[in-house]
Amino acid sequence: MKTPGRLLALVTVLTLALVPVLVTAQSSYTPVTDQRLVNPEPENWLLIRGNYQGWSYSPLDQINSSNVKRLGLVWTSSTGVDSGHQAPPIVNNGVMFVSTPYNQVIALNARTGDQIWRYRRELPEDFKPLHNTNRGVALYGDKVYLASLDCYLVALDAKTGKVAWQKQVENYKTGYYMTLAPLIVKGKVMVGVSGGEFGVRGFVQAFDAETGAPLWKRFTVPGPGEPGHESWSGDTWQRGGASIWLTGSYDPDLNLTFWGTGNASPWFGDQRPGDNLYTSSTIAIDPDTGALKSHFQYQWNESWDWDEPDSPLILDFQKGGRSIKGLVHPARNGYLYMLERSKERIGFVSATAYVKQNVFANIDSTTGRPNYNPERIPRTGKRADFCPSLWGGKDWPNAAYNPKTGRLYMPTNDNHCGFMEGKKQPFVAGKWWTGVDIPDIGFTVDKSATFFGNIQAWDLNAGQRVWSHQFPASMAWGGLLATAGNVVFGGGTNDRYFRAFDATTGQVLWQIRTNSGITAPPVSFSIGGVQYIAVVSGWGVDPEFQEGLLSNLLGWPKEVPTGGVVWVFALAP
Amino acid sequence: MTSRLTHERSEDSEPSPGPRALLPARRALLKAALGLGLCVPLLDALPAAADDPKSIRPQVGDQFVGDSEGQVIKPNDLPIGGPQRLAYPIDPRTKVVRDGSYFNQVVLVRLDPAQLSEDTRSLAAGGTVAYTVVCTHQGCPVSMWKSDTKNLFCSCHASQFDPRDRAKVVDGPATRRLPMLPLKVVDGVLVVAGEFTGRIGGANPM
């Protein structure tokens, strides 16, 4: 017969034995609501850039510039696949979701790193992935949403990883694919398509988050009768490009989504005379109806493969004594754009070069329209050399904004150039169709330059750069995270380091050498009063290809080890 | 603590093409049939889809066409020293082009036979070689050409293969040579002389 003391001990032992099972079984999941997305809790990371405005900013400040040197590793977990990992971990009350190349989604216990479930997509046997990556999942209600490489929108049950529904967005055989994270606004899941190297006509499409029913579709290249169609000649609009590579930002007050569009197709402007709206632009789309409300085009009739895929950051800045409701876009073309947003239009405020660029003779101070140096325009049968190269001053890796300091932090690349000559190529659906084959795309560097990759910090109100952190032997291919602790986190270099920069000075305060190169953005979240920093390390896609070219040009190491690993850090006690 | 693996493909999707799924099914059926002591001739009753002539692998004696309506390819049709020409096998009796599977597409390159390595020359027709178009990295078409080094160049991630040396990987992320398709010339026309020398497809990612 047990004494009360022994009974208590037994009950305690049994309870302790039970607790681990209760904690790790996916028994509860906090649904994601419109309210939570408009006002996300600092403890979570519900959207790929932290908020609808695209700031990539964490209000958490337990980790700060004084103590970040004590940051220590908490756990790691392999994704099990190679290729370029570009997704931030998404975190909702202790559950972390990581999407990977080849379209896996992994759910992990954010505190311990235990794996909860894994979704593996069976891609078609004949699928040919030009950009084998995924830029993140989106959360809404009790589901996790993935835009797949073979052009399906997939809704997974957040607790089990089982497919709730999936809808075909387009036919991958014709060159369409998807790499972006969906944008979800008021129960509508919006995705866009890639394929500007295959002669597709880009679009954004919205689906009902609960049922998957298609709701509206907005082509980014206007057809006959649509505004902007007159900027295309003949039938060239049918294969005009304007891909949607990255997730839109959203202004709840204006109720407008803002998207960046890709290059025009094919790559050589003389093969498609006209401004080619809305390629290489920022466009505003009404999420309720899909109506295209306004646009700003960065380069008209573009000929450098200068997509402008990054959605603009939505923030207010000071200029000329007044506060401007703005949009900020560090462009591929090498200029930092400050724009003004309103319900009716996107207005030009200013553009300042942040890398060396020799294509624009000038930019009209009212309209923002550039005039080109004619010798810098590649044409059919005529080579032209131009700087920066097709990868631009900044490609898809995101910038970050700190609202407390008004500073923008950008991963940039300088001292590189390109050259191309166009050919007329016959169009075959699903085949590369740009007017120049990949081995013939020219890429050069200034061998006397002292740096290439450069993390830049800009004071947006003053309109000028405040510090640079330059890399003499690497490009900068990593998305950034800014925190209220006055730290900027990011990877992106070929040496595999993950770094913490002092947001005031740009000095490196802490770094760790990871398994691979980091091209994905870091995130921050908090559980039980502990702040964590998480990032996925896994090199591939364009940075990998470019590194091969840089190895030939500059003798840099040809191979950066590949393979995806999730890294999670917190302050050591 | 459980981790679950889910392989999902919904009713909404199109069936993926190709006989790769069918060959294992045939083997499984054969094993089952033999296991049950049934006669092998039962296999002749398999549905026609399993033997779809457009999707079965290149057969000895097949010729090549550049597109489904083109003329069969002779060595003289190919530029000496490259670049490659993409082609599908064609059944010379029935004229069926085996373009039902991307995995049947090949690259044909005509080279100086003296430049071929010995084990390449043994499977070539004179100086003409055939390799799968399917890159051994992630399955993209090796449809581009590096004109300075005269190598096959993949159209996705810049893997390069030397057509003179059994499509050895000379650059880029691929880790496996391109399987070669043995050739001979019959009545002046290029003809398949054997099976692919290796598995067709990209690396298994997991």
Describe the structure.
Chain A is mostly beta strands and 573 residues long. Helix content of chain A is 7%, strand content 36%. Chain A contains 3 helices and 38 strands. In chain A, the strands form 10 sheets. Chain A has a 5-stranded mixed β-sheet, with no helix packed on it. In chain A, a hairpin with a 2-residue loop joins strand 3 (90-92) and strand 4. The radius of gyration of chain A is 23 Å and the shape is globular. Mean pLDDT of chain A is 95; it is low at 11-25. By secondary structure, chain B is mostly beta strands. In chain B, 9% of the residues lie in helices and 21% in strands. In chain B, the strands form 3 sheets. Chain B has a 4-stranded antiparallel β-sheet, with no helix packed on it. Chain B has a 4-stranded antiparallel β-sheet with strand order 6-7-8-9, with no helix packed on it. In chain B, strands 10-11 form a two-stranded antiparallel sheet. The longest helix of chain B has 14 residues, at 22-35. The relative contact order of chain B is 0.14. Strand 6 (115-121) of chain A pairs parallel with strand 1 of chain B.
Distinct helical segment count of chain B: 2
Largest beta-sheet characterization of chain B: 4 strands, antiparallel
Count of beta strands of chain A:
38
Strand ordering within the main sheet of chain A: 1-32-33-34-35
Measured by residues with Cβ under 8 Å of the partner chain's Cβ, the largest interface is: A-B, 48 and 40 residues
| Contiguous runs where pLDDT drops below 50 for at least 5 residues of chain B | 1-27, 33-49
Structural class of chain A: mainly beta
The CATH architecture of the largest domain in chain B would be 3-layer Sandwich
Q: Which CATH-level-2 architecture of chain A?
A: 8 Propeller
Beta strand % of chain A = 35-45%
Largest sheet of chain A: 5 strands, mixed
Euclidean distance between termini CA atoms of chain B:
22 Å
The CATH fourth-level homologous superfamily of the largest domain in chain B: Rieske [2Fe-2S] iron-sulphur domain
Order of strands side by side in the largest beta sheet of chain B?
2-3-4-5
Alpha-carbon Rg of chain B, integer? 19 Å
CATH fold label of chain A? Methanol Dehydrogenase, Chain A
Q: Given the C-alpha coordinates, what overall shape of chain B results? A: globular
Query: What's the number of domains of chain A?
Result: 1
How much beta of chain B, percentage-wise?
15-25%
Per CATH, the class of chain A reads: Mainly Beta
Q: What is the global morphology of chain A?
A: globular
